[in-house]
């Protein structure tokens, strides 16, 4: 994401939008007794290495945009502010290493999600915007495709559009991430051994599967898939294959989502219940996409909400692996986003309690005001801390400018409208960023290494500082040597 044009897309679509490590051991709480550590270690080792070194099942979780500062901030966010020491998060215990995220791009050395996802889905570095193709735009095989070739079941779960960069890079091959209609068509038409490539597809992006793109949803249904659109329908789905489309574009953020929407962990649980029926195993990719989609507009409330949602999905995956000895869980990120800092200004302080008091994300409030709703009413309903009067005046001023530009514009992607939308969201979020002492450096991506967490058979392969392509290479090796 490199321009206001792209930023505006994140603001207006869907919901409208560290730990430094170079150790090979798991992190444990300093307050744990030696007996506790020994008990936990024996339990985990028995589960992870009980019967095979090559996992039959792989759950690969992607925290899109989740840089190291996000993981550290989430630790602050989860802890009692009066405590003298912090308890570890679920992630901390399973910290294995870091990934280098740079792409193979002639002009840029900071990755986007397309190049990042192609790297850890296929083992190939490529240019920004590439989906399942190398730097020469040639198709590259993915771990999901390899799993399907070997008779395993496959799944893609995301809080973004299913045609967005990360899920797309596992099951489609196009030279540009913007070709979302083509990506959706490939999900349907591309088959392996006469079977659909992906058995479970859960996320947003219904607009790419409807009548304007060949009624792909109806075609999936005709081929035996359950096609569902809300949490209740998903819970009632009984078939092994399902297409779940829960929003027209990106799914709402967890803090803003209606009860009828499944959360990331709900989708993951449903996927696992279907994929595990295959005796040959499965590959499942689970993306917490909206960490990134909240960080682009510098929405700290949205970021912490989505980190919490990703934590629940990660915890559930770990629990699943502890009960299924042949399952590997890996969680990492494609890049970091926003340049978020824990504290800003002269005070050595970060105040996550202010974020806990928020009722809605900044992205949600921006969308509501941009649609014409009264700014004071929206802010009152969305904020949990005092909103200064002078800042409210600023919000009203920016909202009027946006309304005027929107009336004049005939293009939904008018860069002036998108830039003004960003100004409005900045005005809305200033009080929470100030009160929490959260700093930001960019609306785009940043290039630092990202953390990798892993548990189960083969998890030691992710130890140390690695290329992001090693994730795919490891999984290819696991499936090649899977104990049948």
UniProtKB/TrEMBL annotation:
Q: Which cofactor does it need?
A: Mg(2+); Zn(2+)
Which residue windows are transmembrane per the record? Answer: none
Chain spans, region Disordered: 29-48, 405-449
Q: Where does Zn(2+) bind?
A: 64, 292, 296, 334-335, 445
- Please note every region of biased composition (Basic and acidic residues): 34-46, 408-421
Q: What residues does Mg(2+) bind to?
A: 64, 164, 166, 287
By its UniProt entry, which InterPro entries does this protein fall under? Alkaline_phosphatase, Alkaline_phosphatase_AS, Alkaline_phosphatase_core_sf
What's one Pfam family here? Alk_phosphatase
Bound cofactor: record note: Binds 1 Mg(2+) ion.
Task: Please name the catalytic residues of this protein.
Answer: 113
Signal peptide range in chain numbering: 1-30
| Superkingdom, taxonomy of origin | Bacteria
Gene Ontology molecular-function annotations: alkaline phosphatase activity; metal ion binding
Keywords of the record, alphabetical order, are: Hydrolase, Magnesium, Metal-binding, Phosphoprotein, Signal, Zinc
CDD domains, A to Z: ALP
Q: Which PANTHER family match?
A: ALKALINE PHOSPHATASE
| UniProt similarity note | Belongs to the alkaline phosphatase family.
Per its record, how is this protein called by name?
Alkaline phosphatase
* Upper taxonomic lineage: Bacteria, Bacillati, Bacillota, Bacilli, Bacillales
């Amino acid at each position: 994401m490199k321009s206001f044009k792209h930023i505006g897309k994140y603001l207006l679509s869907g919901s409208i939008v560290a730990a430094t490590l170079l150790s090979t051991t798991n992190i444990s709480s300093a307050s744990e007794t030696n007996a506790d550590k020994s008990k936990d270690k024996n339990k985990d080792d028995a589960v992870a290495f009980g019967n095979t070194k090559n996992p039959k099942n792989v759950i690969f979780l992607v925290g899109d945009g989740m840089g190291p500062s996000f993981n550290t901030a989430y630790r602050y966010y989860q802890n009692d502010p009066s405590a003298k020491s912090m308890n570890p998060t679920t992630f901390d215990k399973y910290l294995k290493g870091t990934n280098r995220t740079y792409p193979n791009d002639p002009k840029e050395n900071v990755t986007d999600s397309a190049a990042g996802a192609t790297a850890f889905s296929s083992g190939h570095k490529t240019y920004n915007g590439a989906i399942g193709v190398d730097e020469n735009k040639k198709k590259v095989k993915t771990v999901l495709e390899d799993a399907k070739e070997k008779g395993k079941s496959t799944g893609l779960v995301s809080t973004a559009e299913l045609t967005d960069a990360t899920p797309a890079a596992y099951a489609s091959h196009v030279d540009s991430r913007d070709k979302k209609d083509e990506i959706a068509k490939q999900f349907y038409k591309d088959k392996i051994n006469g079977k659909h490539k992906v058995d479970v597809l859960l996320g947003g992006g219904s607009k790419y599967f409807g009548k304007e793109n060949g009624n792909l949803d109806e075609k999936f249904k005709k081929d035996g898939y359950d096609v569902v659109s809300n949490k209740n329908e998903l819970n009632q789905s009984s078939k092994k294959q399902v297409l779940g489309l829960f929003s027209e574009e990106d799914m709402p953020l967890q803090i803003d989502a209606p009860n009828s929407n499944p959360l990331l962990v709900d989708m993951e649980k449903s996927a696992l219940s279907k994929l595990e029926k295959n005796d040959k195993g499965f590959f499942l990719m689970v993306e917490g996409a909206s960490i990134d989609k909240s960080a682009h507009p510098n929405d700290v409330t949205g970021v912490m909400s989505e980190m919490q949602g990703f934590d629940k999905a990660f915890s559930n995956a770990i629990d699943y692996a502890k009960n299924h000895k042949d399952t590997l869980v890996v969680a990492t990120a494609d890049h970091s986003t926003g340049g978020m800092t824990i504290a800003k200004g002269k005070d050595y302080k970060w105040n996550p309690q202010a974020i806990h008091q928020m009722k809605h994300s900044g992205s949600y409030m921006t969308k509501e005001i941009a649609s014409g709703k009264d700014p004071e009413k929206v802010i009152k309903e969305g904020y949990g801390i005092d909103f200064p009067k002078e800042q409210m005046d600023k919000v009203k001023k920016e909202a009027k400018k946006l309304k005027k530009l929107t009336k004049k514009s005939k293009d939904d992607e008018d860069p002036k409208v998108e830039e003004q939308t960003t100004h409005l969201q900045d005005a809305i979020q200033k009080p929470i960023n100030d009160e929490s002492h959260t700093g930001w450096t960019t609306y785009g991506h940043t290039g630092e290494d990202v953390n990798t967490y892993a548990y189960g058979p083969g998890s030691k392969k992710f130890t140390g500082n690695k290329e992001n392509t090693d994730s795919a290479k490891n999984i290819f090796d696991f499936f090649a040597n899977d104990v049948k």
